[in-house]
Amino acid sequence: MMNTHTARAATILGLLLLGLMPRPAAATGFSAADIDAIAADTLAARGSGLATIPVDPRLRFDECGATLRVDDVRGGLRISCPGSWQVNVRLTSAGAAVRPAAPQGTYLVAVRPILRGAVIRPQDIRPKEGALRPAYVLERDVVIGAAATRTIQPDMPISTAMIKPALRVHRRDPVEIVSNGRGFQVSMAGTARQSGSTGARIEVVNASSHKKISGFVTDSGKIKINR
């Protein structure tokens, strides 16, 4: 059973730290570093004066569709995903190894579930005060308009591994191809042969000449031949 301190810490931390440390955007689940951080933040929330002994860095755990549990066990903490996996983290006196206090500041969290592949809107996120982690995204402009690389649960901090530039143009989309000269602009219809986000260089086909052209995707979804 979870005691009062653990329940409070689990409430604070439940589903909080997915993507806590930098890692490739394709990575999923929890790393050993994530588990260590969850345990350390639980101790910090209690003010226990104890420190964690790092778990085996080779360990990885699947994503959790439920709220993570943090329970007391003899000599440490048990972090678990109900019905899936669990891992014990051993504790020691803080004098042996004290984790540096994380800087405090404002970061961004999800207001509602953001599904994988969804483009993030202003109403999907809100600021939150607390301990900052290296991978947290702090700027709204970076998050708004980006696509989620994984499902982001409510109140979960948004990290760099959770977002990527959203596609502005998709393969086979009809597009407007533009070319600028001195004092004039030429515009023609075409079809995208590739998908791309803003700034990406993609190949398109001129609808009239059927010639293949390379251009850059603009914010408005047009294909600009010359920058």
Describe this structure in words.
13% of the residues lie in helices and 37% in strands. The chain is mainly beta and 227 residues long. The protein has 3 domains: 4-93; 104-165, Antifreeze-like/N-acetylneuraminic acid synthase C-terminal domain (Type Iii Antifreeze Protein Isoform Hplc 12), CATH 3.90.1210; 167-224, SH3 type barrels. Helix 1 (4-13) crosses helix 2 (32-46). The longest helix has 15 residues, at 32-46. 24% of the residues are buried. The model is unreliable at 1-12 and 14-27 (pLDDT under 50). Residues 1-27 form the signal peptide. It is found in: Periplasm. Keywords: Bacterial flagellum biogenesis, Cell projection, Cilium, Flagellum, Periplasm, Signal.
Descriptive labels:
227 residues, mainly beta, Type Iii Antifreeze Protein Isoform Hplc 12, SH3 type barrels, 3 domains, 5-stranded mixed beta barrel, 4-stranded antiparallel β-sheet, 3 helices, 13% helix, disordered N terminus, SAF, cilium
